[in-house]
Amino acid sequence: MLPVILAVLLAQTAPGNPRQQGVPIGKGKTLPTVRLSAPSGGWTVDRMMLVEGTISDTTIDPVVVSINGDRYLMRTYGGRFSRKFPAASGKNIVTVMATNQAGTARAQATSYAQIPPVPFKVVLTSDTDGVYTDLHIYEPTDTSEAGDQLNVSAMAHVYWADTASPSGGTFFLNEQGGDFDQPAYGPYLYIHRAPPKGVYLVATNYWPSGDKAHTVATLNLALFEGTPNEIRRMVRIPLATPGTTRVLAWVNVLGDGQAEVYVPAQDPKPKHPDWPKNLAEALKELQTSGAEGEGG
Q1: How far is residue 200's CA from residue 104's CA, in Å, rounded to a whole number?
Q2: What DSSP character marks residue 85?
Q3: Is the peptide bond before 117 cis (omega within 30 degrees of 0)?
Q4: What is the CATH number that goes with domain 23-115?
Q5: Fewer beta carbons within 10 Å, N or C terminal of the chain?
Q6: 3-state SS, residue 39
């Protein structure tokens, strides 16, 4: 009996596989230096904000980026990082954090964007290298809702292989240097500057590679950003089964600067009369058919 107890105790105290412990840290033993070359501060009229800079410890990959409190992961290449993000109307506080064995270093800049508010923004990242957590957006169409029923198959599907949104949404692939859309942390981005009324569905399709067992996907959702009606929501869920489609959130754009978010398994069933009555059935339909395509 004693050997069994010892084995259990050792299993509980032994360090886990590093790739399952979240964001990897750099190998350097001297606190890194982070320098932000962009944004440089001041005012801008650009709708896209460049986040760019260098890290003294080239073994750090990725860096953690916070934009107005939303957390993203961004790849580094030889100690450099660069990626454009949709800017928020008004203040954009950008913080970049780089961690190695000596600790975490930070650099911060604030940029003020004189642009119209962004009514619908989605950013999806993952905490594991070598996996695809593909972002899939389903938009409402003229035929996707009939009465109080939702037909998922009639929704417009916007994702890595079809980035042209029929209603004017913009889908940005996970591209930030190196190979095109390589598996890693993301981020995948989607914005809509004039979203039509109706129900949207935000989902992810998981495709691991090699020995990657699971990851944690993080969704940052912002509606009517930069306005008094701003809604922000972060959803973090584990993904473990290859090819699994997981609904991260339903969004119902009600018009007049109003919207509601419903996160399955976290929120009570929505009661607004403009919500479809068959969300559970629609969810089963999506999971049965699966999001199209492997990888991205």
Answers
A1: 38
A2: E
A3: no
A4: 2.60.40.10
A5: N
A6: coil
Residues 6+ apart with CB under 8 A from 227: 89, 117, 257
Q: What is the pLDDT of residues 63-95, one digit of tens each?
A: 999 999 888 888 899 999 998 888 999 999 999
- Which of 117, 102, 94 has its CA nearest to residue 25? 102
Q: If we measure between CA atoms, which residue out of 79, 63, 59 comes closest to residue 71? A: 63
Mean of the per-residue pLDDT values for the chain? 84
Q: What CATH number matches the domain at 117-291, 2.60.60, 1.10.10, 3.30.70, 2.60.40? A: 2.60.60
Distance CA 171, CA 67 (A): 19
Amino acid, single-letter form, for residue 47:
R
Task: Determine the Cα–Cα distance for residues 83 and 176; give it in Å rounded to an integer.
Answer: 6
In this structure, what is the dihedral angle of CA atoms 250, 257, 112, 57, given to the nearest 10 degrees? 0
Whole-model pTM? Answer: 0.81
DSSP, residue by residue, 139-203? E--TTSEETTEE-GGGSEEEBTTB-B-TTS-EEE-S-SSSSTT-SSS--EEEEESSPPSEEEEEE
